[in-house]
Design a protein that fits this description.
7 helices, 102 residues, mainly alpha
Length: 102
C-alpha cells in the first residue's frame, strides 16, 4: 500500500462491487439475482451488505450470469481479505525482520 489511491481501491468489498457495478445498473435486487443464480437469497443479500465473502461456488455462478470470470470475483475477495488483514496486523508485520538474500 504505497499510495492512498491503491489502498482505497483494494479495500473495496466484493459486495460493494456487486451492488454498485452490477446490480444497480441493472435495477436488480439481491433477491432477483439469488433466484437467477439458484442460491438462497440471504447469501446474496449478505454479500451485498458486506457481511459475507464470495466463495468459489458463488464466484462461478456470478461469472456465468454476468459474463465475467470466476477469478474476477475470487481475486476481489482475496485482495479485500489481504488488505484487511494487513491493516489489522500492521504493527506485528513491522516487527518481522525480512530474510536477506545470501
Amino acid at each position: 500500500m504505497n499510495n492512498r489511491k491503491e489502498s482505497v481501491a483494494w479495500n473495496i468489498h466484493p459486495g460493494e462491487v456487486l451492488r454498485e457495478e452490477f446490480l444497480k445498473p441493472l435495477k436488480m435486487t439481491p433477491y432477483e439475482l439469488a433466484k437467477r443464480l439458484h442460491v438462497p437469497a440471504p447469501r446474496i443479500n449478505d454479500i451485498v451488505l458486506e457481511r459475507r465473502g464470495v466463495t468459489a461456488d458463488t464466484a462461478l455462478r456470478l461469472a456465468r450470469f454476468f459474463g465475467t470470470s470466476p477469478e474476477f470475483w475470487m481475486n476481489a475477495q482475496a485482495f479485500y481479505e489481504v488488505r484487511k488483514a494487513g491493516v489489522k496486523l500492521a504493527r506485528d508485520l513491522e516487527r518481522i525482520d525480512p530474510r536477506r538474500a545470501a
